Amino acid sequence: MLRRTFLAVTAACMLVAGGSAMAQSYRTEYRLSTVLGTAFPWGQAGERWAALVKEKTQGRINIKLYPGTSLVGGDQTREFTAIRQGVIDLAIGSTINWSPQVKQLNLFALPFLMPDYKAIDALTQGEVGKQLFGILEKQDVIPLAWGENGFREMSNSKRPVTSPSEMKGLKFRVVGSPLFNETFSAAGANPTQMSWADAQPALASGAVDGQENPLSVFVAAKLSGVGQKYLTLWHYVADPLIFVVNKEVWASWSPADREAVRQAALQAGSENIALARKGIAGSDNAVLKQIEAAGVTVTTLTTEQRDAFVKATRPVYEKWSKTIGADLVKKAETAIAKR
Ligand code: X2X
């Protein structure tokens, strides 16, 4: 009698818990990977997603944040493979870091494709975004929402830069895809690829002169403190973030919990985009003021100066359009023109 009551209670609990027997296979913890930690909008997005999931699933899904891409020893270009293999259960990843495995994601890194925030939105919130999500899903990674790292501006420790000729001899740390090496070479500089973990000591020791990252990262990582005294605003590329779940993990959750995780990602994603643009976008330049107050010389390119960089990097754009897929690039250009 006691045993039967116990079984009945257990079954009722499981129904309440997951809506199916699947609840049995839930793990006590799921691992969420990000590159940047909670001092940055990116890491805060991870924290927020985890909190919203916990709330919306009444604690059935418990997510732990692993910043610093620590689940792959800091090698952010291996993150996507690790998600596919189940070493990582969930991630909020930059399109740049997953580009070596998903060549279409190089789209956002085509130099000067996206002139402004509306252009980013035209891609991520439109047909292009849907197509890219379809490509990820075919690779067994379930995409749920877009977030944002931001427009990437360049800084260096040597001099103000307004033209490709002033890039000569400057050693830049670049990320991820070989596309970045080619863009910086075409722009006149001397690029070298390394992870974010290695970038900071390399900047501090002077092993490299410069880097490129969004202003929100520049400020939170205190790059002015490692000699980055010259900043050029050229808005050459922007990297969106993508919220994803490993396919098997996704399948192990009840439909109701999957929906909760998706809604949590959408909410955390839109909050993340707002935060990534705060103090940077439109007339709100509080972040730039903060950077200038730290003694950094900020250079804004004139249209002519920017055009010289566009022209210098155009062959890279053309070459990589073929790798990404001419149709997808055309679709993106059309969406941007219509924004
Ligand atoms: O490594 C970088 O520069 C960073 C943190 O922006 C990315 O992960 C793309």
What does this structure look like?
By secondary structure, this protein is α/β, with parallel strands linked by helices. It has a single domain, classed as 3-Layer(aba) Sandwich (D-Maltodextrin-Binding Protein, domain 2). It is built from 15 helices and nine strands. Strands 1, 2, 3, 4, 5, 6, 7, 8 and 9 form a nine-stranded mixed beta sheet that branches. α2 packs antiparallel against α12. The longest helix is centred in the last third of the chain and has 23 residues. It is globular. About 6% of the residues have low confidence. The protein binds (2S)-2-hydroxy-2-methyl-3-oxobutanoic acid. (2S)-2-hydroxy-2-methyl-3-oxobutanoic acid binds next to α4.
What are the SSEs and their pairings?
Elements: H1 2-18, E1 30-33, H2 41-56, E2 63-66, H3 79-85, E3 90-94, H4 95-98, H5 117-124, H6 127-138, E4 141-156, H7 164-167, E5 171-174, H8 178-186, E6 190-193, H9 196-205, E7 210-214, H10 215-220, E8 230-246, H11 247-252, H12 255-277, H13 286-293, E9 297-300, H14 303-324, H15 326-337
Parallel strand pairs: 1-2, 1-3, 5-6, 5-7, 8-9
Antiparallel strand pairs: 3-8, 4-7, 4-8
Bound molecules: (2S)-2-hydroxy-2-methyl-3-oxobutanoic acid.
